[in-house]
Structures are given as structure tokens and as C-alpha cells.
Amino acid sequence: MQNIYHTRTGRAFPHGVKVTEKGVNFSISSRYATAVELLLYATAECHTPFQVIELQRDKNHTFFSWHVFVEGLPVGVWYAWRIDGPYLPHDLGLRFDRQKLLLDPWARAVSDKLWSRAAACVPGDNSQQAMRAAVIDESDYDWEGDKPLAIRSEKVIIYELHVGGFTRHSSAKVRHPGTFAGLIEKIPYLQYLGITHVELLPVMAFDEQDVPVYTSNLGLHNYWGYSTHSFFSPHPGYCVSPEQATHIREFRDMVKALHKAGIGVILDVVFNHTSEAGVDGPVINFKGITGNSFYITQKHDKQAFLDFTGCGNTVNANHPLVTNFIISCLEYWVREMHVDGFRFDLASALARGEDGEVLQDPPLVWGIELSEQLTKAKLIAEAWDATGLYQVGNFPGYRWAEWNGMYRDAIRGFLRGDKGIIGEVATRICGSEDLYGHLNRLPISGINFIVCHDGFTLYDLFSYNEKHNLANGENNRDGCGHNLSYNYGAEGPTDDPAVLALRRRQVKNAYAILLLSHGVPMLLAGNEFLHSQHGNNNGYCQDNELSWLNWEQSLENADIVRFVREMILFRKRHACLMRRMFLTGRPRAGHSLPDIVWHGAEPGQAPDWHDPELRVLAYTLAAEAEHEPHLFVVLNMSEAPYRAHLPVLPGRGWTLAINTALPSPLDIGGGEAAAYPEPDYWVPERTIAVFETLTHFAAN
Question: What H or E segment, with its residue span, contains residue 596?
């Protein structure tokens, strides 16, 4: 490609690249730039541009935007920018360096084949080791009538997964391991399991080299992806043919295939910081283009970044230009990529103003909530940041749901057998009205989870008392030390059959509680077949078999997979587990039975909520409709059997539906619904039992 292409003035909008029949428009916004060059490359790995276009201030500049139209330029060309301007880091936070090659923040496809993070961290020319963006035509795609799904939040069951790790292990047996295409091949398994949405760990292009030096020296790199640099581009590492700029097509193929299977797509997005890190971090795009506007800096020294994320910088999310950038980005992923929602990493950082102060009504958060294009998108906040701001129950806005960290901690403690928390546990499984009711929010405002990608896997939660992160190269200093875990007598692997049996039962107990709770349940991929990270609770840098899912375990532990599937089906069959409104303890209109009744040790007696020794919850949950069965639930996390008195309901008897102490398939859905003949049922220690009513029951 040796042609020299003619240019015209071009247009300021849209930013990024716009392909037309006559050529390509390029536009980039830089308020303080004094000189701008566009460099064109034949391929992503070319070291020398075939054309350098110098933009003229009197011709190619409108307000903050620099723009040029390149006539006849074909799709498939790669490009980058050079931008010069004042170097005033202390006064204005400006760090212009015309020797640095810059990536277009609006790029739709990027390549990191030549990328060297180290070269971007020091002054000097890095053009031989910089990333490139591709010119692509987004309009050339057949969606076949696809559109984002409309699944009501109370019916949602989220499955958090890592696109790479889900299929990278050889046992996955897919044609393209670790890619969007590989995930498509596993859709039948997702359908079998019964989840309604996948929540994908970051899939926007991120810097795999963003790890500490001592971790990099071990041959490790950034695996989770919480180091975004290009917010409009799918990650090239998850594409089969990134060198051909297939990013958009491959991502869309995955979304379309998931939607055809009835599964929604939620993206875990990282707008609280970028991969450019602190002052000593690399210059990739924003540092070299926008000056101090994109990051929160100290008031009297604009060179010093304020870090509320633990990653070196904090995005200045409520600056007008940055707010516009983020909302435009989210609208793009819904409008053009058909995603169904977003989970916002360290979302509380997005509630901070330009001085780092916490805003009561942050413009970005409300702008997202009020965006017409995002009206139907699920919005989920991780409602805390890395410096202690904790907003669970108080995150700004009304449409937002929150990762309920208080649910996680209470249920972990309950499973472990902690005393004195029974009242909180009851509140959590009923939807956390204490957190959301006073704000006129709903149980669906809480995303219930017991484990997630960050921390112990579910099996490790019941196998380790302490974290074991030496493999990360940080002498076990990294990762959270407050895990509320218990190993049941052996730290890690053991041959003790009693310990192994109890761990498996606890996994079933965890899934049972999660799927019996009001609110939106979130499961972590692979936990249903007992995936372990050998006690490592911070696998962010472990792109290897420690983190990858071993699909042979899905066969070895098919009984647990079956239990989880049956629990999901059980939840879907019972509308009373998916109520949109909070429980009241009173009969609903047209019903004679209170929506929930709590039971104590004796018939007709309420539990003693102030008993510090109480580790059992028993309650009757009324059906939503008269033709549906009521539920009697007993959660026994004590170390002794519990004698449960089955409530007497006129005209109805009880049948045992779930007992986590029984072997598969008797633990759930393994037999005919037969009337239980006795008035009492002994629930074994550390066991969950659930009864359903039988209609038109005739007592002997």
C-alpha cells in the first residue's frame, strides 16, 4: 500500500473514524494541542508509516477537535496520532510529547502486537513499540433482527465468567480457545445450566503488561483485564483474527449467538481508572491528548494524580468532557453492540468530583441513569472504591443495582457457623430491605453473591483458612485477608472423606441459600464443578491452569453441576422466590397466608432473634398464586440436627423437595413428590431442607 492519498478538511464529529464511500474521516479532541499528525500504516505491525498527514490549525481544527478526511482510503489501514503542545505538568497537568505515538481513544479495533509498556513509560520515541488502531466499517454487519433482551430483573440469574479462562484449558475442546468464538461453543452448557445472563470480566481492550515488575519477572501478566486503555474496542486477545481487525464482528457474533439462546450479556466495565497508571505510568492516549482533564489531580500540583482506585490514577468522571465520553461509550455498546447491561468496577470512584470529594448527585451517575439509550440496560454498581468509600445501600440513583457486599459477608459467616448474626442473615435472604427499602428501591437493587472473581472460589472458601498467593510474586501480601472462610480440619487438599463430604455439602448449601434469596443471584463460572485456585484469592495475573476452568471437573463433579441446575430450575418454578417487592409478614391482597412466617423451636413460636447461639432459620414462604405451592425452608448451619415442625396448612400437605445432606439425585428433584407423613422432620447439621406443599392433600 504505497499510495499517497489526498486529503480534505474533514469534520469534527464524530470523533474517531467514520468510513464513507469516498474515504475516511478522522477526528480527535485535544484542547491544548498545537500540532497534530496522523500516521497511516499498511498493517498493525509495520514500523514505518506509508503516509504522515500534518494537520493545519487554520484548516483542520475546530474548537477542541482536530480532523481530516482522507480520500479513497480503504478499510483495513492502521493508524496512530502524534500530538504536540505545551509541557506544563504542575500548572495544567499537560504532558505533551510529540515523540510518543498515541492511540485513538475512540478506536474500534486496536492491536498490541508491537506494544512495550516499558517504552511508553519513559521519554523518547516509542513508535516502533506502540499500539495501532484500525480503520473498520462498522455498518457492514447483519444482526439478523437481533436486539438487546428484555428480561425483568427479578427473573435474572447472572453467571460471571472470564472470556479467556472459560475455554482456554485444553479440556474445553473448542476450536478457538480463550476467545469470543470459543464462548459461543459453550452456549449449550450455559443453556443446560439455566442462567439468564453472562457477566463478562473486562472485554474492552486492556494492557496485559500492566503488572508489577516482580510479577512480570515470573512470566505473569494481567489476566483479569482491569486495565482498560481503549473503551470502544473489544480486546484483541479474545479475537481469532485480530490482525485482520475482526474485533467488532467477532464480538457481535458472540452477542448474537447468546441472544439466540435467550442469554443476555452484561459487561464488567472499568471507568474508574485506566492502564496509564500514575505519573510514572505509560503514555498511551489520554495522558498525551487531554492533559489534566481526564484524571483527578491534586489541586495545587496538577502533575500529582489522586488515587482512589489503587491503580495509580482515578478517572475524572464528572468533568463535562469525560462524562460525555463515558456516556457516549456506554450508549455505543448498547446501540451498536447490543449488550444488555453493565457492571461498573469500583463505581464509587465515579461519584467523586474534580477534587476527589464525594458528590451527592454526581453528573455521570445520573447521566447514565437518565440516558434514553440506556433506559433498558441493566446498571450494576460495585458500590465502593479502594480508599474506603462504601456506598452499598446508598449509591446515587434509583435504577442502579449494587453488588451486595453485606449479603456476601453475612452468608459467608452463616455458612461458617458464626454466632450472633441470625437477624442479619434473615434480612439478607429477604432482599436487604434495611439497605434499599428506605430509598423506595426494591429487592432487585441488590445483586446477591457469595463469591466472585475477586477472592476465593466457592470450593476454596470451604478448603482454606488463609490465602495462599505466593505464586503472584508479592510474598502473599496481595489479596484480601478477611475471607470469612473455614477449612473444616485440613488446609487445602485432603484425603479425609468426612472433610471432603462436608465441603461438597457446603457448596450445595451456598448455592441453595443464594438461589432461595430474594434479589438477583450471581454465580461464578466453574464453581458449580468445584473449580479451585489452590487458595489463591487474587488470580488477577494467573493466565494459566490455576485460573482456567478444567472442564473435566464438570464430569467428575456432575452431581454438583446437577444440583446447581436443579436449584436454578427450582427458583424459576417458584415466583415467590422472585418477588419484586419486599416481604411484609402480612397476607397479600386476596391471600390468606402471610407472605412470610418465621418459626422457632416450638410450633407456633417465633424465633428468638436475640439468641446469640441461634444458627438455624426456618420459615414459610407463601406462593404468589393459589395454584402454586408454598415453601417451608429450614437453614440449619448449626453442628447438631434440628427438629423442624412442619406448619399445618388446611387442605395441604408437604413433600420434601431439597435436602443438601442426601446424595444425588435424592438431594433435589430426584423422585416423585410424595406426601411426607410425619409432623416433624429432623434436618441434619449443616444442611438445608426445603418442603413444597401438595394441593388437595387428604390426611390419613
Answer: strand 596-599
